[in-house]
Design brief:
- The structure holds two protein chains of two kinds.
- By secondary structure, chain A is an all-alpha fold.
- Chain A has one domain (59-247): Orthogonal Bundle (MetI-like fold).
- Chain A is built from twelve helices and no strands.
- The two termini of chain A are 36 Å apart.
- By secondary structure, chain B is of the alpha/beta class.
- Chain B folds into two domains: 35-90 and 170-271, 3-Layer(aba) Sandwich (Rossmann fold); 99-168, no CATH class.
- Chain B is 42% helix and 21% strand.
- Chain B is built from nine helices and nine strands.
- In chain B, the strands form two sheets. A six-stranded mixed beta sheet of chain B has the order 5-6-7-3-8-9, sandwiched between helices. In chain B, strands 2-1-4 form a three-stranded antiparallel beta sheet, with no helix packed on it.
- In chain B, helix 7 (183-200) links the parallel strand 6 (171-175) and strand 7 (203-207).
- Classes of the chains: A mainly alpha, B alpha/beta.
- Chain A binds chain B through residues 148-151, 153-160, 164, 168-169, 172, 175, 248-250, 253, and chain B through 70-72, 94, 96, 98, 101-106, 115-116, 119-120, 147-149, 160, 163, 167.
Chain lengths: 253, 271
């Protein structure tokens, strides 16, 4: 047997162990089966929910909200981050504000955004966009500020104008940091969207699904919705990583 | 006297004068950093078509000198002219010590070399031709589709040298270009630089911290004092090219190097 070839299966070990422990626990009824349904019941609920039930609709809704808020955040934060980052003085003058609001839990902003935008989708998307934008802004600005001075000088020595240096050098220099910001931003947006779906008068979305299932004591459905949210978060991160590896191939090299 | 004949003579004389006149004239150059006066009313002429090294004690302002000549940062006072023209009227190339931070990792080697042409607004087709020409003339065997991070240090520095040369510069500056390379690569790159110079005879100013390298590669060695730097001596070394390992065993090389070292030591002790 070739052990080297088996090493690719290592990441599955944890999953198998978790499922085994879970099965044993439910089979021996160590935990009340109402609180912890078996893996089979949970994955059946996940499967039927995703492909024949409302869970699939909720999943798509949450994806939409997360993507919209990330896009809005990126459209606002990337140009602003480049602008602020291109002048260290400018950034220093607003640094405290950015750090302050970056440190403020976005969930604390729900009531304010509710007043501003009502109970609809807009509030959820805007709060999430607000949180994500600050994370992206911070990363982009630092990416631009930390652009290698030598590279900027090299472009200047070759006769590049200020605008060209900004476009050809600083923008590309900030790309690795920008993608770090986007990945963190989309994760944060998902967190905020799910929380918003739970508590801000929602009729759909994964957050609402988890909350409703819990209220109805439909435990397999609740676990299924949690797993769906986990898969979504993992998938979004993976998606951005893949885009990053493709477009920012020089990152970390 | 025939008027046409005298015209012809003076045109010849003018051409001869241009050939032998200094390429760069530095007058009254002054530069202060926070804690020290690096240059104080510094005058110097850089000869045309020669490979010149700048050598001197640590911190005397070797790099500062070529950085000011190449306009990386401004002098406090003074005038630097290239055939009587300011820097922005001429084409020049600059090679940084830290090639890793000077090349663009998002561009392939080919696009890195072509970049200054792009800045100048040269059409793509012409850019490609020029890059291919420079690569062929230097006989460089690098896969130019690679990105810098896929290349060795020497190859990356070769890319930045070609990037400096692709614009047909009137003058080429190199700031300790080989000091971040291992010894084997340094020896190889010296030969590459010598080859570039033999091919093009571009006026070249090399900052070096290695006296052997400076003498081996140069026609002229400018020895600077401690700061405020002044030219202590402008040593001539006219061994024929191409120079080889054997050149370094010849009496002329050894005595030139010994002479430079003596002056250098004297200047260091003055500190």
């Amino acid at each position: 047997m070739n052990w080297k070839r088996l090493e690719v299966l290592l990441p599955l070990v944890g999953v198998v162990v978790l499922l085994a422990v879970w099965s044993v626990v439910t089979w021996l009824r160590i935990v009340d089966p109402v609180l912890l349904p078996s893996p089979a019941a949970t994955f059946k609920a996940l499967w039927t929910g995703m492909f024949h039930g409302k869970l699939g609709v909720d999943f798509v809704k949450t994806v939409e909200r997360t993507i919209y808020s990330t896009i809005i955040a990126a459209i606002v934060a990337i140009p602003l981050g480049i602008l602020l980052g291109s002048s260290e003085r400018l950034y220093r003058s607003v640094e405290f504000l950015i750090d302050f609001f970056r440190s403020t839990p976005a969930s604390a902003m729900f009531p304010l955004f509710l007043v501003l935008f009502g109970v609809g989708d807009r509030t959820k998307i805007f709060v999430a966009a607000f949180g994500a934008a600050l994370v992206i802004l911070f990363n982009v600005a630092y990416g631009v500020m930390n652009a290698r001075k030598t590279r900027i000088l090299a472009a200047k020595v070759m006769g590049a104008s200020r605008l060209r240096v900004l476009w050809d050098v600083m923008l590309l220099e900030s790309m690795p940091a920008t993608f770090v910001g986007l990945r963190n931003g989309v994760s944060l947006a998902l967190v905020i969207v799910v929380v918003a779906e739970m508590f801000i008068g929602s009729v759909d979305g994964l957050g609402q699904r988890v909350f409703e299932a819990q209220q109805m004591f439909e435990m397999p459905d609740m676990y299924a919705a949690i797993f769906a949210a986990g898969a979504l978060g993992y998938g979004l991160n993976l998606l951005f990583l893949t885009i990053e590896r493709r477009f920012v191939h020089w990152s970390g090299k | 006297m025939h008027p046409a004949a005298s015209m012809e003579l003076s045109a010849n004389a003018r051409a001869a004068a241009t050939r032998t006149a200094p390429h760069v004239t530095i007058r009254g150059l002054s530069k202060r950093f926070a804690d020290a006066t690096i240059y104080d009313n510094f005058d110097f002429d850089i000869p045309r078509g020669k490979l010149m090294s700048v050598f001197g004690p640590n911190g005397c302002g070797k790099s500062t000198l070529i950085n000011m000549i190449a306009g990386l940062f401004p002098a406090d006072k003074g005038e630097i002219l290239f055939d009587g023209q300011p820097l922005n009227k001429i084409k020049f190339g600059y090679v940084f010590q830290n090639y890793r931070e000077a090349v663009f990792p998002w561009l392939s080697a080919f696009d890195n070399i072509a970049y200054p042409l792009k800045v100048m607004g040269v059409p793509k087709k012409e850019r490609n031709l020029k890059v291919e020409k420079i690569v062929a003339s230097l006989n460089v065997k690098i896969d130019l589709n690679l990105y810098p991070y896929q290349m060795s240090g020497g190859q990356q520095q070769m890319v930045s040298i070609m990037r400096a040369l692709v614009v047909d510069p009137e003058i080429l500056f190199l700031d300790e270009p080989f000091s971040a390379l291992d010894y084997e690569m340094t020896l190889f790159m010296r030969e590459q630089l010598q080859r570039v110079f033999v091919e093009t005879h571009t006026t070249t100013v090399l900052v070096s911290h290695d006296l052997e390298e400076a003498v081996y590669l140069s026609d002229r060695i400018l020895l600077l004092s401690r700061h405020p730097a002044r030219p202590v001596e402008f040593v001539h070394y006219d061994a024929p090219r191409p120079r080889t390992d054997k050149t370094m065993t010849e009496g002329d090389f050894i005595s030139t190097k010994a002479h430079c070292l003596e002056i250098f030591q004297r200047e260091v002790r003055k500190g």
